[in-house]
Amino acid sequence: MANIKSAKKRIKVIEKKTALNRIRKSQIKTAIRRFEEALEAGDKTTATERFQFAQKKINQVASSGTIHKNAASRKVAKLASKLNAMN
């Protein structure tokens, strides 16, 4: 455990940031899972809506710095190709 006051503060800040990042990554995974469930069900309109929602969430998380912008772009492109394959 840290003895210096600033080090103790950094530990608290890092714990908060880690918790936020974990929540944000979980939101992305949930959005992607729901999109893929709609794809498997074969519902085109629901899949399109969920794709847009997942794309929005991924871009939000990338803009906050939780994931890299190239990783976000790669995830969105992968989802888009799945949606296009369905069409």
Give structural notes.
The structure is a single chain. The protein has 87 residues and is mostly helical. The protein has a domain of 44 residues. The chain is 87% helix and 0% strand. It is built from three helices and no strands. The N and C termini lie far apart (56 Å).
Give the C-alpha Rg.
17 Å
What is the arithmetic mean of pLDDT?
A: 96
Number of helices: 3
What is the succession of H and E elements?
A: HHH
The secondary-structure class comes to mainly alpha
Oligomer: single chain
Largest sheet: none
Topology:
Blueprint: H1 5-41, H2 44-64, H3 69-86
Helix pairs in contact: 1-2, 1-3, 2-3
Q: What's the short version?
A:
The chain is an all-alpha fold and 87 residues long.
Output the keywords.
87 residues; mainly alpha; 3 helices; 0% strand
